[in-house]
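Dear Dr. H.,

I hope your travels went smoothly. While you were away I took the liberty of generating a structure for the chain from your last submission, since the lab meeting agenda had it listed for discussion. I wanted you to have the full record in hand beforehand rather than looking at slides cold. The sequence, exactly as received, is reproduced here:
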Amino acid sequence: MRIKDPKYPAAVEAAVEILRKRARQGQTITYGELSAELAAQGFDSIPPHRGVMTYLLKDVCLHRNEDGRAPMLSAIVVNKASREPSDQFSRLARSLPFSRPSNWSWRDEQQQVFALHREE
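The corresponding predicted structure, in token form, is as follows:
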């Protein structure tokens, strides 16, 4: 799948729903699990690493969050071995429109995601 693929916006919506469900449960999800869940919904060309997954997770963070102030939903997507988000996540958090401060940590962001979705 490519960003210009007509199915791409639907893949973003599907990823948002998958991640919100996990966040409500207070659970993280690995890149591989997210890729597999998307494949199960018919979005079978989103490999867990690099490529379109990087753009998809950025767009998930921007979903109804154009100003970047809300917690970044993809903070709960982690590497299977390290149980931490990729370095790309930290770079994204420090870029516009998110602009997280220098003392920011992905753990804090993750807790904010869990808190936000538990309250819904």
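Two observations you may find useful: The longest strand covers residues 29-30. The chain has a mean pLDDT of 93.

With kind regards,
E. W.
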